[in-house]
Design goal:
Blueprint: E1 2-6, H1 14-28, E2 32-37, H2 41-48, E3 52-55, H3 63-79, E4 84-87, H4 90-103, E5 107-111, H5 119-123, E6 130-133, H6 136-146, E7 153-155, H7 171-177, E8 184-189, H8 198-213, E9 218-223, H9 229-236, E10 242-246, H10 251-255, E11 260-263, H11 265-273, E12 278-281, E13 290-293, H12 299-304, H13 317-328, H14 332-349, H15 352-367
Parallel strand pairs: 1-2, 1-4, 2-3, 4-5, 5-6, 6-7, 8-9, 8-11, 9-10, 11-12
Antiparallel strand pairs: 12-13
Helix pairs in contact: 1-15, 3-4, 8-13, 11-14
Length: about 375
C-alpha cells in the first residue's frame, strides 16, 4: 500500500514520535510510506532510515501557504500513486481532506489530544472516513463535540519502542550533561511552551525544599525546548543541580540516567518502559491534573486518560513535593517493583505492533483490502 502521512512538523514531541514509529513499522511491513510536514529533527531521522520526507508549510495557517500545501499533497498523491492519506493534526487534516475529496482518495486521521472547539474551528476540522483516537476519553470528546459516529472511531495506543526505551547504563550521557552519579535524579520531559511548562516551573519552585529534605542528594533534569524555554531557564537561575538540556533526540539515554519521572503522556510511557517510577502530573492549559505515583491502584485511571490526567484533581506544589518524597523514601526493592510493573504495563498495552495493527485495519477498511 502507498501511504502518505501528513502533520504540521516533525520536531521532537509525543505526536511526532508516534508518527515516526508508525512510519518505520509500516515500512518494515513492506508498505511504501511518505511523510509530509514542515520538517524538523524527526524528518532527518526518517530520511536516514529510508523513508521519504516531503517538505510542505503545513504548520502555517496563512492562506497562501495552505494553498501551497494543498497543491503539494495533490502532486504527491499523483506522483506516488497514494492509496490513502493519514493526517495527524487539525490544519494538515483540513488541507489534506480537500485534496483527497477532489482526487477520490481515502482519508483518515489520528487524534493525539483534546482540541479546542468553537464555531470556526469546527469548520476547519475534518476527521476523515475513519479516526484513530489514542485514548477512550479523546474518543468520547470527538463524538460529543463533532458528532462523529462511534463506528467511525477506533481507540488505539501510543506505541512505545521497548528496545530503545529500556533499563541500561548510559555513563557517556551522565558525563556530557554533568549528572552526578551519586544523587537521586528527577526527570521531566516536555515541550516548554507557555501552555505546557507549568510542571517544569513547579518542579523548579519546589526544588529548594526537595533539596533540603534530601540533604542535597538530588538533581532535577528538564528535557525539552519551546517558546517558554528562556523563562523556565531564568526561573531555574544558577542552581547547579538543575540541568536544562534543551531539545534532545536521545531522550531514551537521558531517561536511563534517571531515578524518577514527573510528567504525563508519551514521555511517561517511555519512562515506564525504562523501568522508572513515575508521578503523573500535567498541564492546566490542557485540562490535565494530578494522579500521583503510578501503581496498580492508579492503572485504570491512568489508562483511561492516556496517562494525561485529563479532568483529574488539580496539581499543586504541595502534592508534587509529597509525591516526590514518597518515592525518594521508598526502599530499593519498592522502587524496583514500581519500575518493573510500569514496564510490564507498557509491554502489555502499548506495543508498536498494536498501534500499527490498528492503523492497518482502518487503512484496509477504507481502501478495500489492498
Amino acid at each position: 500500500m502507498n501511504i502518505l502521512l501528513v502533520t504540521m512538523e516533525m520536531q521532537i514531541g509525543g505526536a511526532e514520535t508516534h508518527i515516526f514509529e508508525l512510519a518505520r513499522e509500516l515500512k518494515r511491513r513492506n508498505h511504501n510510506v511518505y511523510v509530509m510536514s514542515a520538517g524538523g529533527r524527526y524528518a532527518e531521522m526518517l530520511e536516514k532510515i529510508g523513508i521519504s520526507h516531503i517538505f510542505a508549510p503545513l504548520k502555517d495557517k496563512h492562506p497562501k501557504n495552505m494553498l501551497k500545501s494543498y497543491k503539494l499533497i495533490e502532486k504527491v498523491i499523483n506522483e506516488k500513486q497514494i492509496d490513502i492519506v493519514h493526517a495527524h493534526a487539525r490544519i494538515p487534516a483540513f488541507i489534506a481532506s480537500k485534496a483527497c475529496k477532489k482526487m477520490h482518495i481515502p482519508f483518515v486521521t489520528t487524534s493525539h489530544g483534546i482540541y479546542r472547539v468553537n464555531f470556526i474551528l469546527k469548520i476547519l476540522t475534518n476527521w476523515g472516513q475513519k479516526t484513530l483516537a489514542v485514548s477512550e476519553d479523546i474518543k468520547k470528546e470527538i463524538m460529543a463535540d463533532y458528532k462523529v459516529k462511534e463506528k467511525n472511531i477506533k481507540v488505539t495506543v501510543n506505541g512505545i519502542n521497548t528496545t530503545t526505551f529500556c533499563k541500561t547504563n548510559s555513563d557517556e550521557i551522565r558525563t556530557n550533561l554533568g549528572i552526578d552519579n551519586e544523587k537521586f535524579h528527577i526527570i521531566h520531559v516536555s515541550r516548554l511552551d507557555k501552555e505546557s511548562s507549568n510542571i517544569a516551573e513547579m518542579l523548579i519552585k519546589i526544588f529548594d525544599k526537595v533539596k533540603k529534605e534530601t540533604s542535597g542528594n538530588v538533581q532535577l533534569i528538564i528535557v525539552g525546548d519551546g517558546d517558554n524555554y528562556k523563562n523556565v531557564k531564568l526561573l531555574a537561575g544558577k542552581e547547579h543541580d538543575i540541568v536544562m538540556t534543551g531539545l534532545r533526540t536521545d531522550v531514551s539515554e537521558i531517561l536511563k540516567c534517571s531515578d524518577l519521572f514527573v510528567g504525563v503522556s508519551r514521555a511517561a510511557l517511555e519512562a515506564m518502559s525504562c523501568e522508572l517510577p513515575i508521578i503523573l502530573a500535567g498541564n492546566k492549559a490542557y485540562a490535565q491534573g494530578f494522579i500521583g505515583v503510578f501503581d496498580k491502584e492508579k492503572k485504570e485511571q491512568a489508562i483511561a486518560t492516556n496517562f494525561c490526567c485529563r479532568d483529574c484533581e488539580d496539581v499543586t506544589e504541595e502534592k508534587l513535593f509529597e509525591a516526590i518524597m514518597k518515592v525518594y523514601n521508598m526502599s530499593f526493592e519498592e522502587k524496583k517493583r514500581l519500575g518493573e510493573y510500569g514496564r510490564n504495563i507498557v509491554k502489555a498495552h502499548y506495543s508498536i505492533d498494536k498501534m500499527v495493527d490498528d492503523a492497518e485495519e482502518i487503512y484496509k477498511e477504507c481502501v478495500g483490502g489492498k
